[in-house]
Design brief:
This is Extracellular solute-binding protein. It comes from Lederbergia citrisecunda. By secondary structure, the protein is of the alpha+beta class. It is about 30% helix and about 20% strand. It folds into 5 domains: about 150 residues, no CATH class; about 180 residues, Galactose-binding domain-like (Jelly Rolls), CATH 2.60.120.260; about 180 residues, Jelly Rolls, CATH 2.60.120.260; about 180 residues, D-Maltodextrin-Binding Protein, domain 2 (3-Layer(aba) Sandwich), CATH 3.40.190.10; about 200 residues, Periplasmic binding protein-like II (D-Maltodextrin-Binding Protein, domain 2), CATH 3.40.190. Strands 1, 2, 3, 5, 10, 11 and 13 form a 7-stranded antiparallel beta sheet that branches. Strands 14, 16, 17, 19, 22, 23 and 25 form a 7-stranded antiparallel beta sheet that branches. A 5-stranded antiparallel beta sheet has the order 15-18-24-20-21, with no helix packed on it. β36 and β37 form a beta hairpin.
Length: about 1000
């Protein structure tokens, strides 16, 4: 243990080893990136910095600094802007503005989006060459979307389906705002009196830029002043009903109509699913806006009432901002609460006394908008973030003290090393307790699950503080365990900003009696009875036998996936081939083995885990796709290494459907600030560790996120990169005891024992966001999380290929696994050729692109589709630079082949790592012990499946290779 601690100290520079003894020398991430806007805003208030008054400057594109003539479009090419405009793509634009006084200003842009993809248009703003605060690193220019048609088509069951979405190409104006939309107002920028330079740098997308405006911060008028400005006593006594799912536009493609059942919603049908509401979980991100177009018959004052269902999963209040014709009419509706309620309610916009607000609307068309707004919880999110950072720094200091070793037999006098430890922990508890009280007030006394989690974190901190000397041995309760304080708070950060709201309709009315939001008891009961009776004849995706002319496909995915696949098949596959298909949702893919044994299997299964085809094929239940004459040509669309777990000898029993990828994620802002290069090899990784660790940061590998069992996804890449192997060529013995594999295992363990990489990280995504792990290796799921749920760092992280081992010729071996889902044909299929035609259609480039684009456009970035079809993947609506990196890494995709004893190899590799790292066992000794256990189990399984008899090989079990797969396409073996 002492040796390990000393080795750790050798890696870390001396000045940071016991940084806790000299707080003045502490170096943390706070020194690396800009302060958050929240902190800067507070500093401005303390320093007495005020908003500039009565100022607006309009800067036209022709006066932008250092403008290239090619980037200035003539007035006739300006999309009706009426003046020359700047074509902003892959470059910066700068402008100069003179202001009359020191103060705070806002910056606004006229813009016309050219990008029509889900990928947003993003830039960043520098003032006089610097980012004034971190949020200025990402400014989003939203697109305006609408449904292609305002009527809903129906599927084969009579249920309404969501129409395709399209961008509305038009000029818009936007003030620079926080990309997370957690700030109640537009971002303010401090400009000094005189000349200032403002630069908009490019991150993503393309657009035309018209005038840029620098102006005094916008100030909303009060309701009292609003009534004064619209002097008119006429209160219209009429009722206008607007169905929420009709006649709207939005600033996010995946705000969508929802089929809500029950007699409370209008319209409803006891048999069919009607798209009769809008929003819900698709309208929960702060800043998402829905705009309804309404027609007003006469001038006058109206009330506004929304029929809503607000069932936020954790309980609590959500908020909306009201806009009329793109403007907030008065300050009182800039933030309006919708309280948690499990029933539909009519919510009239009114003041604290209960008096409805009156809105003056003139005759003609108007746009009524609601925008999700999470700004009330911004202060809580900021505080929680700060507490987590401070806890991580404290935990790191303790690890430095203990040598990162947990020895429960050793006692500590924590106050000798950290005199302020108890005060720190008590301070965290007090701050969190204060936020708990604030959130309770925000929820009008109701205790939501968010508040319960916050109170649990406070309780844990107070418990830890009772015995501070035990903290070095209880870090799992503070920062590292799955139920630690840090994990509780991290989960809370994901839930707090969510603002879901489901809207059925809204009313523009006078003193009229409004329809009740819910029907009476008898109407509700009668509707329930009708729905129950109709359910016996209603169509659905349940697993049931299809007729002899219809191919039955079981899908291991959610209903929204199956809806899109079925519609695509009905529109393209069946008309082209004449083959009818029926899809069924598979409740549990494990039942495929039972269904096959009972001869009740489907023709085709898609979306299944890649281990299943092997388990079915070795038992004689799957069709060998190599039997089809065009299979080898068709296989060219996929990565060769993806076929390895789907093969036995030269037989192939499934097609790769989706493909995972392991790449290196890194924070551009942090690495740039520390002047740390992006590592290309493992030697490079080791070289940057001291600098990272000096600032309280580290490098993440999937081993740290794997828990006690280290799967092939975490261990096999090291074996392959060191030119080792898992099996001998005939498959009868393991090869992990050979020299190259042993080197890989030793290096894999050294990353933790010598170089002090973290051993356990419950959630890399959270640590990446908080900057404690600004670089590391992760997969597709992390990519989706960062894309969909980390707006505060969007644009400031990137990916690069998996670090590898440099070879003598200068190339880098960066082999990694990439398990995904697969698609297969069952031997009991009623028609092999028709099933194969379907499989080819489903995994074809056109189908995969259509499916992926539709899925992501309708349901958002969390529904990204990582198609295994390489040509389709190139056309997905993802950032081009990311696709290039992933495709480059896929050239080194090598999945682990399946063998009857593969599970034992996987288990023992995990055991070897645990024995070396935790028990200090010699690597050679640990491997030798496992080799004996593995070979014994392989022999037993080979006997079971007929490859051995009485301990002697009857026939070899050929381990498939990448070269073997490449030979199908006629590629020469480079070796």
């Amino acid at each position: 243990m002492i040796c390990l601690a000393l080795l750790w100290l050798l890696v870390i520079p001396k000045e940071s080893t016991f940084a806790e003894k000299d707080a003045s020398k502490d170096q943390t991430i706070e020194n690396v990136v800009e302060e958050r806007y929240h902190t800067i805003l507070e500093q401005w208030k303390e320093d007495g910095v005020e908003n500039a008054s009565n100022f607006e400057a309009s800067i036209s594109p022709s006066t932008f600094l250092d403008v290239k003539e090619d980037d200035l479009l003539a007035s006739e090419n300006s999309k009706d802007y009426g003046d020359r405009v700047f074509y902003w793509h892959n470059q910066s634009l700068s402008l100069s503005v003179s202001v009359p006084e020191d103060g705070l200003y806002e910056i606004s842009f006229d813009y016309y989006p050219i990008s029509k993809e889900v990928v947003p248009i993003e830039g960043s703003i520098l003032i006089n060459g610097e980012y004034p605060f971190y949020e200025s690193r990402r400014i989003v220019f939203p697109l305006k979307w609408k449904s292609v048609k305002d009527t809903f088509d129906t599927d084969r069951f009579g249920n309404e389906i969501i129409p395709n979405q399209e961008v509305i190409p038009e000029w818009g104006k936007i003030s620079a705002t926080d990309a997370s939309n957690l700030q109640a107002e537009s971002l303010k920028y401090y400009l000094k009196k005189g000349k200032n330079t403002i630069t908009l740098t490019h991150l993503k997308g393309e657009m035309l830029v018209g005038n840029v405006y620098v102006h005094s911060p916008t100030k909303l008028i009060s309701y009292k002043d609003y009534l004064q400005n619209n002097k008119n006593d006429h209160k219209v006594n009429s009722l206008i009903i607007q169905e929420a799912e009709k006649g709207y536009t939005k600033n996010s493609s995946y705000i969508r109509p929802v089929a809500t059942t029950g007699s409370s919603v209008v319209p409803n049908n006891p048999k069919y699913l009607l798209l009769n509401t809008v929003g819900g979980d698709s309208w929960r991100e702060s800043g998402q806006r829905v705009n309804w177009n309404v027609s007003i018959a006469e001038d006058g004052y109206y009330q506004l009432t929304f029929k809503v269902l607000q069932k936020k999963e954790t309980g609590g209040t959500v908020f909306r901002k009201l806009l009329i014709d793109g403007e907030i009419p008065f300050s009182e509706v800039s933030l309006f609460p919708f309280e948690f309620n499990k029933k539909w309610v009519n919510t009239t916009l009114k003041d604290e006394k209960g008096d409805p607000y009156l809105f003056y609307l003139t005759k003609g068309n108007h746009e009524i908008s609601l925008e999700a707004d999470a700004s009330p919880v911004e202060r809580s999110i900021f505080t929680i973030n700060e507490v987590i950072k401070e806890m991580q720094e404290f935990a790191l200091s303790i690890k430095k003290l203990t040598g990162n070793q947990n020895d429960r037999s050793r006692g500590w006098k924590i106050n000798e090393y950290f005199p302020d430890a108890e005060k720190k922990i008590d301070g965290w508890a007090n701050r969190l307790e204060e936020e708990s009280k604030y959130l309770t007030e925000l929820n009008k006394g109701n205790e939501s699950k968010d508040i319960v989690s916050l109170n649990m974190a406070v309780k844990k901190l107070r418990t830890l503080n009772k015995n501070p000397n035990e903290i070095p041995n209880r870090l799992t309760e503070l920062t590292e365990g799955s139920s630690s304080v840090a994990q509780l708070l991290g989960n809370l950060l994901l839930e707090l900003p969510k603002q879901p709201l489901l809207v059925d309709r809204f009313y523009i009315h006078g003193e009229n009696q409004l329809p009740a939001p819910t029907p009476g008891y008898f109407a509700k009961t009668w509707n329930g009875m009708k729905r129950f009776v109709q359910s016996f004849s209603a169509g659905n995706y349940s697993a049931s036998s299809a007729d002899d002319q219809t191919i039955e496909i079981w899908v291991n995915r959610q209903r929204q996936y199956v809806d899109i696949i079925q519609n695509l098949a009905d529109q393209t596959f069946t008309p082209k081939t004449g083959i009818k298909v029926k899809f069924s949702i598979m409740p549990d893919e494990g039942k495929l083995i039972l269904a096959s044994a009972a001869n009740n299997q489907p023709d085709v299964a898609i979306g299944i885990s890649n281990w299943l085809p092997y388990e079915l094929s070795i038992r004689g239940a799957a069709v060998d796709l190599h039997e089809f004459s065009d299979f080898e040509d068709y296989s060219n669309q996929f990565s060769p290494g993806a076929f390895l777990p789907l093969m036995i000898d030269d037989s192939v029993y499934a097609l790769p459907e989706t493909q995972d990828f392991y790449v290196q994620f890194y924070r551009k802002d942090i690495l740039n600030a520390l002047k740390i290069p992006v590592p290309d090899t493992w030697d490079d990784v080791v070289k940057i560790l001291p600098e990272l660790q000096r600032f309280g940061m580290n490098y993440y590998t999937p081993i740290a996120g794997a828990g006690g069992f280290k799967s092939f996804q975490t261990t096999a890449p090291f074996i392959y990169q060191f030119s080792g192997d898992l099996y001998e060529e005939d498959g009868m013995r393991t090869a992990i005891g050979e020299e190259d594999s042993l080197k890989a295992i030793e290096f894999m363990a050294k990353l933790n024992t010598i170089y002090s990489m973290p051993m356990q990280v419950p959630n890399f995504y959270n640590h990446f966001r908080y900057s404690t792990l600004p670089i590391g290796i992760a997969n597709f799921s992390t990519y989706v999380q960062l894309t969909a749920a980390a707006p505060e760092i969007a644009g400031w992280w990137d990916i690069s290929p998996y670090p590898g081992i440099k070879q003598q010729d200068g190339t880098v071996e960066r082999w990694a696994t990439g398990s995904g889902q697969s698609s297969m044909i069952f031997k009991g299929t009623k028609d092999r050729e028709k099933s194969w035609e379907f499989l080819k259609w489903w995994m074809s480039t056109d189908t995969q692109v259509d499916f992926a684009t539709t899925l992501q456009t309708l349901y958002g970035p969390e529904y990204m589709w990582n198609s295994a079809n390489l040509e389709a993947f190139k056309q997905l609506p993802w950032p081009e630079e990311h696709k290039e990196t992933i495709l480059k890494q896929w050239e080194y995709l090598q999945e682990v082949p399946k063998t009857p004893g593969a599970y034992m190899v996987e288990r023992e590799l995990s055991n070897i790592w645990n024995r070396i790292v935790f028990d200090g066992e010699n690597p050679r000794s640990a491997v030798d012990d496992s080799v004996i256990a593995i070979n014994r189990e392989i022999s037993r399984k080979m006997e079971e499946f007929g490859y051995m008899k009485n301990g002697k090989m009857v026939k070899p079990y050929h381990i498939p290779s990448i070269d073997q797969v490449k030979s199908w396409a006629g590629e020469k073996n480079e070796d």
